[in-house]
């Protein structure tokens, strides 16, 4: 082989390999980033399902029980605050604030369910039982969606941080994503009072 051909063939081959590696890394990072966004959307969808069930549950309880209006107001306000926090949360947002608000929602719902226990007619009502079962199922779906989200974030962060992906991630502007962690308030069981 001619020396002059080798002088331009080797750098050209290396350049082709470099471009191929960059393109493959970029496409992998885009797919990973989209996976994180999709997993977060699943988390939001499950929380939205919970938020959609709450007004129906409140209406059902209100229709059967004659108790403090404050409990219904607390549930409604907690739902509104959590919805607002959800709009600020996300893979790059404030998940801690979102989770704090959802801890408040969970506590308010426990209080509502506690009051419902005092009304046998309500507990026997088919609509209430169906809503309660749907809410319980939704809580389980939220847990699954959050776990899946954290698994997807772990894979994404691995791609962003491992060599040579870290070089391409930095060059193309891809960053690590935040895990969904529970708020400090979630570590304590909420107090439910029937007084």
List keywords for this structure.
de novo design (two linked rop proteins), mainly alpha, disordered C terminus, 195 residues
Number of helices: 6
> What is the C-alpha radius of gyration, as a whole number of Å?
25 Å
Main β-sheet description: none
* Unreliable stretches covering 5 or more consecutive residues: 189-195
Might you state the CATH topology name? de novo design (two linked rop proteins)
Q: Strand share of the residues?
A: under 5%
Q: How much helical structure, as a percent, in the residues?
A: over 70%
N-C termini distance = 93 Å
Element-by-element helix/strand order: HHHHHH
Question: Kindly state the mean pLDDT as a whole number?
Answer: 82
Structural class: mainly alpha
Tell me the number of structural domains: 1
| CATH superfamily label | LemA-like domain
The general outline is rod-shaped
CATH class: Mainly Alpha
Please tell me the CATH architecture by its name.
Up-down Bundle
Overall strand count: 0
Description:
This protein is mainly alpha-helical. It has one domain: Up-down Bundle (de novo design (two linked rop proteins)), CATH 1.20.1440. Helices cover 78% and strands 0% of the residues. The chain is built from six helices and no strands. The protein has helices at 3-64, 69-88, 95-116, 120-124, 126-161, 165-172. Helix 1 (3-64) packs antiparallel against helix 2. The longest helix is centred in the first third of the chain and has 62 residues, at 3-64. Residues 189-195 have low confidence and may be disordered.
């Amino acid at each position: 082989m001619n020396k002059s051909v080798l002088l331009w063939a080797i750098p050209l081959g290396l350049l082709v390999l470099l471009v191929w590696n960059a393109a493959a890394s970029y496409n992998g990072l885009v797919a990973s980033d989209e996976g994180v966004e999709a997993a977060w959307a699943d988390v939001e969808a499950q929380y939205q399902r919970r938020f959609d069930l709450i007004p129906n549950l409140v209406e059902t309880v209100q229709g059967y029980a004659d108790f403090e209006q404050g409990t219904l107001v607390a549930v409604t306000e907690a739902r509104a605050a959590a919805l607002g926090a959800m709009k600020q949360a996300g893979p790059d947002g404030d998940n801690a604030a979102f989770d704090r608000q959802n801890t408040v929602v969970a506590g308010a719902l426990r209080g509502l369910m506690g009051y419902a226990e005092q009304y046998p007619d309500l507990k026997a009502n088919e609509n209430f039982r169906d809503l309660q079962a749907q809410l319980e199922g939704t809580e389980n779906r939220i847990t699954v969606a959050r776990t899946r989200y954290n698994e997807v974030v772990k894979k994404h962060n691995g791609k962003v941080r491992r060599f040579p992906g870290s070089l391409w991630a930095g060059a193309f502007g891809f960053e690590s994503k935040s895990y969904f962690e529970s708020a400090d308030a979630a570590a304590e069981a909420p107090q439910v009072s029937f007084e």
